[in-house]
Design goal:
This protein is an alpha/beta fold. The protein contains 3 helices and 8 strands, in the order βαβββαβββαβ. It is globular. The termini are far apart.
Length: 132
């Protein structure tokens, strides 16, 4: 298996991470819902692929809204042995405004780990803005 990086999501966070890793010489691909969409025009076209295709990437970065995390992970199939980097923030609008949608007995990364047995889940890159 290659050491390619698949970034699921190409919004501000996913695009910023991917561009920088490409500059550093890494093999990066962007998994997006519609690779032909003009909203991804700023990314290398040959690096765009359907979000549900892992294509042997050893590292999968989830840079989606939290609500898309579980469906995205499940769509990729068996992730056993892969390194998963969870950049999501489990927040949403509730009766009192913006707040956590998980916890206090679990976390987004724990939920991702439960969905992906045998994968190595790391929670990071969610604590700062995409511009950093």
């Amino acid at each position: 298996m290659s050491h390619a990086i698949l970034i699921v999501g190409a919004g501000r966070v996913g695009a910023a991470l991917g561009r920088r890793w490409l500059e550093l010489g890494h093999d990066v691909r962007f998994g997006v819902p519609d690779p032909d969409s003009p909203k991804y025009a700023g990314l290398p076209r040959e690096r765009l692929q359907p979000a549900a295709e892992r294509r042997g990437a050893a590292i999968v970065v989830f840079a989606t809204p939290y609500a898309a995390l579980a469906p995205a992970a499940l769509a990729l199939g068996d992730l056993r042995g892969a390194i998963l980097i969870d950049c999501t923030n489990p927040i949403g609008m509730g009766p009192h405004g913006l707040g956590l949608v998980v916890g206090p007995d679990t976390s987004a990364a724990e939920q991702l780990a439960a969905l992906t047995p045998g994968a190595h889940v790391f929670k990071t890159l969610n604590q700062t803005g995409a511009e950093n």
